[in-house]
Every structure is written in C-alpha cells, then in structure tokens.
Amino acid sequence: xxxxxxxxxxxxxxxxxxxxxxxxxxxxxxxxxxxxxxxxxxxxxxxxxxxxxxxxxxxxxxxxxxxxxxxxxxxxxxxxxxxxxxxxxxxxxxxxxxxxxxxxxxxxxxxxxxxxxxxxxxxxxxxxxxxxxxxxxxxxxxxxxxxxxxxxxxxxxxxxxxxxxxxxxxxxxxxxxxxxxxxxxxxxxxxxxxxxxxxxxxxxxxxxxxxxxxxxxxxxxxxxxxxxxxxx
Length: 232
What we know:
Blueprint (H helix, E strand, L loop, with lengths): L2 H11 L2 H14 L6 H13 L3 H16 L2 H13 L8 H6 L3 H16 L13 H8 L4 H13 L1 H13 L5 H9 L6 H13 L32
Helix pairs in contact: 1-9, 2-3, 2-4, 2-8, 2-11, 3-4, 4-11, 8-9, 10-11, 10-12
C-alpha cells in the first residue's frame, strides 16, 4: 500500500470504534505500572462497548492484566517484549533492524506526531506500538488518521508481532489481534511483505519466525488460535 492509499485508508478507518480499541490496546501494551489497576474498570467498560471481534481478544488480555499481581505482570512484560527480539514492540525495528535508516524513520515519526499536537517525553521512543496507538486514538480525526497511517506503513511488522505473540501463547496476543482487526484485510504487496519478513527477519538480523510459519503470517487474523498453533 503506497502513501496515497494509506492516507485514503486511514481516513476511512478513523472511526470512534477503532479509536476506542486502539486506546484500550495502547494502555494494555504499555509497561505495567502501579497506575494500571485503577484503570481496569474503565477499560472493561470501554471493551464492553465494542463488537465481539474486537472485544473478545481485548478482554482476554485485559483479564490477564487484571488478574496478575503487578510485580509478576511486569516481569512477564519484560520477558515478552524486552528479552525476545521477535516480540519487539518497536515497529521500525522490523522494517530497518538496527540500521541508520531506522534513525531516519524515528525522526519522521516524531515529526508526524508533532504535526498533530502529540509531544513525547524525552525517554519515549516514537515507534513503540503503545505510542502509535495513543496517536491513533487521539481526540480528533487528524491525530487518529496520523496514527493509522503509521500502523499501515508498518503493517508487516505489526502482523509479525501478532503472529509471534500468538506463537508464544502470550496473554498480550489478544491486544494485537484486536489492533490488526481494525485494519483492512491483507492483500497484494502487504501480504507479500508480511510473508517475507516472517521468513527473513529484519534487515541484517536473523530473528524471523520459522519459515514454516511464513504462510500463517498472511492468514486472516481469525480469533481461532489454531491458525497459528498457539494456545490462547
């Protein structure tokens, strides 16, 4: 999907329903802090407003978060997202690895946020999925469309992260299933890019999934985990 097509798709996808799903997913995909338990009732109420294909996967992640003691949850988060490169929440990593081009992409993302009034803290990296989702769930159409354009631009990495979390049986997989379900079905070049990334990994890296799973990466994001072999 080229830039013009992404802009058109983002304008079409920037609905309140998608924004609610993105906001819930953003909060669930942040590093868990002591503020999280107090948010659970609000998140449950938001999820209850969503249609089943979004509510069910989000609810699975939310209930795990709500039912796990915070120190244990934080340890699980680090083990999942910080210690497994194939589960990296940093979307530009999948496209550029640790190359110079990734630095350029990070600058461009910051500029996109600034253009819609979103300023990041100094310690925040703009390609963390939770940050992109925060933008996609912004207060106006401009912010939401900007966030959606970034999700679509990094669709291959997003889908690979979804597949990796499902393959690992991660409780955070539900959040990725819901986010991907807010986007158009994979087809054409996007579908090919996901399969290629699943087989080869990021540039200069060998962190892709087993090549036998490359085809699964392009399958529709069904709620049935049997499409990936992962237990939910």
